[in-house]
Amino acid sequence: MTSLRRRLLAGTTLSASIALVxxxxxLNGLLERSLVGEHDRSLEARARFxxxxxxxxxxxxxxxxxxxxxxxxxxPERGGFLELRRPDGTPVYRSPSLGGxxxxxxxxxxxxxxxxxxxxxxxxxxxxxxxxxxxxAFSAGSxxxxxxxxxxxxxxxxxTLDLFRALLGVVGAGTLLVMALALVVVVRRATRPVxxxxxxxxAIGADDLSARLEIRGVPSEFMPAIARxxxxxxxLEAAFARERAFSQEIAHELRTPVAALRASTELALxxxxxAEDYAFALRTIxxxxxxxxxxxxxxxxxxxLEAAxxxxxxxxxxxxxxxVEAWEPxxxxxxxxxxxxxxxxxxxxxxxxxRDMLRLALRNLFDNAVAYAxxxxxxxxxxxxxxxxxxxxxxxxTGSRLTDEQAQKARQRFWRGAAARSDAGLHCGxxxxxxxxxxxxxxxxxLLRSACGGEFVAEIRLAVNGSGxxxxx
Amino acid sequence: MKxxxxxxxxxxxxxxxxxxxxxGFAVDATGDGEEGLWLALVEDYDAVVLDLMLPGLDGMKxxxxxxxxxxxxHVLLLTARDSVxxxxxxxxxxxxxxxCxxxxxxxxxxxxxxLVRRRYAAKSPVVRVGDLEVDRAARRVRRSGQTVDLTAxxxxxxxFLAVRAGEVVxxxxxxxxxxxFDEEPRSNLLEVYxxxxxxxxEAGGLPRILHTRRGEGYRLEAPPGGAP
Lengths: 473, 228
What we know:
The complex is a heterodimer of chains A (473) and B (228). Chain A is 49% helix and 18% strand. Chain A has helices spanning 4-52, 155-190, 192-203, 223-269, 275-308, 319-327, 331-336, 355-372, 404-409, 418-422, 431-441, and strands spanning 55-57, 60-62, 80-85, 91-94, 114-117, 123-131, 134-135, 146-153, 315-318, 340-345, 350-353, 378-385, 390-397, 445-450, 456-463. Chain A has a five-stranded antiparallel β-sheet with strand order 4-3-8-6-5, with helices on one face. In chain A, a hairpin with a 5-residue loop joins strand 5 and strand 6 (123-131). Chain A is rod-shaped, with a radius of gyration of 53 Å. Chain B has 228 residues and is an alpha/beta fold. Chain B has helices spanning 10-22, 33-42, 59-68, 84-92, 105-119, 152-163, 171-178, 189-201, and strands spanning 2-6, 26-30, 47-51, 74-79, 97-100, 126-129, 132-135, 140-143, 146-148, 210-213, 217-220. The A-B interface holds A 251-264, 266-267, 270-271, 284, 287-288, 416-418, 421-422, 424-425 and B 8-12, 14-16, 18-19, 22, 31-32, 53, 55-56, 80-81, 100-106.
């Protein structure tokens, strides 16, 4: 894994190097072109001048160079070299600096001024000029086209160019070094907030999620990520707090029935007792175990709902049919308590809902209604369409011992009214919490209302077209 | 000795009552916080076993109101909350002891016994009055080195007089500490118990140690000059 700093340094150094090299090459090319071009122009002007003094007199070529200043061509060390040729290449005139040797160069002026090797091994520039010399009247008709090749020692030029290149190289390398050092400092400072951010994030542990990342002084590019991280931390903190609270609630709720079982067992075993006492103790323990079993079952249901809430499977459900099917297991229990049951069901009411979750909710509501209705009282079930968007299932029982205020609390986990407390364990305060969660999972909501001494009504409102679970609370 | 149990879980409440009664305590019990507070205020209990999570009025509020009314009854808090913070909060609110659920019945009885002893400023479980020894931990009575057999009620009565040795304890006080709130007092039952205890303590011609103050009550006192 490469670090951001190394990447930044490598990238910027490479870019700067390329830029410097390209700039250097450009400058070098520009200067070379300029200097060589000036040198060549001077050479070509000299060639044109020297060509202008060549004449043809009476058919003979007269160079005429002794009438002009030829100092630079006098000796090799003067740097000038000159050769005048006929079209077939035979020389007409060679400057003394050539020492009789041929002068290499462009064949004619159709080729550009070029680099050439000069006698003595020096490098020079050579230019060629093809021309027809002036002729007198006696030479008309026999004036050949001559080629004048003029070359000049370019060692000074080359030295100048080399010096410039060296200077360019040194300056470029120095610039690159300074830039690299400056980049190290700049990148280090620029990436300091990243290290600080990493340190802040590292300090946040599962034990304390209340910390948030500081936004002040952070580069603007990081702000969206920090804002989202803080939001995520907030949601994690809330989720952990809910889980801790739930775990504590469960531990608390389990301890009392377990304490009762332990106390009953220890008392039964603390001394020799008669059979009836042991039977009573065992019945008490059995009831306690059944209460714990009911609690565990409810906890599992709630756990499954919490986990499955995001995966509700919506399908077409005929509500009146589903309600009557869910009621079946409670028919005999209601009869045993002499309860009157009254169904007011719409003829047909199809909604989109998760069938299993709906059944779970209905069973818990029927369980509560039958358990808490007063003996000889009644249970009323109403299924109806509220409007084009919502349908309603309302289950009411007589003999409520809760006020409306207490009814609103009843959906809290482990909340129980006095009646539920006195029945020792089968009702552990989770039924309505389960219904609430199940209603939410199918995109509905649970409404509770109660009049002490009157009816307790639990109503599930469902979206007719089904909208899936709401976002977790 | 009389104990009040305030616990809303019926099976646990029943086990607590049974365990305490079998240990020789008179027990009143309720599952409601309001009723528990009322009983604690109007009756003179030797200790209260108080659950925290109660309907009506929770245990911490009951404790607060008891202490606000300067009621010094010893309270043992019984609760499922076992964190250090909860325990500290309970003790700082005025509880004398704290026991987490689930618990061993033996431990609960021992802690209640310790609270009752503390009420009578008795550090040791053995109360000596002259040559009479009442071992409250072992529930054993000895006089002049000889074990004296007593029934549970006889022992409870003698124990109460022993922790208040030298004081005149009224019949009403004895009733309140030996019988539950709902147990009707019988007019001469205490006299019968006292007579029975006296016969056993004075067997073999031993000097009287349990005295009657007519119209006032009973007093347990070592015979003058005869206490070893």
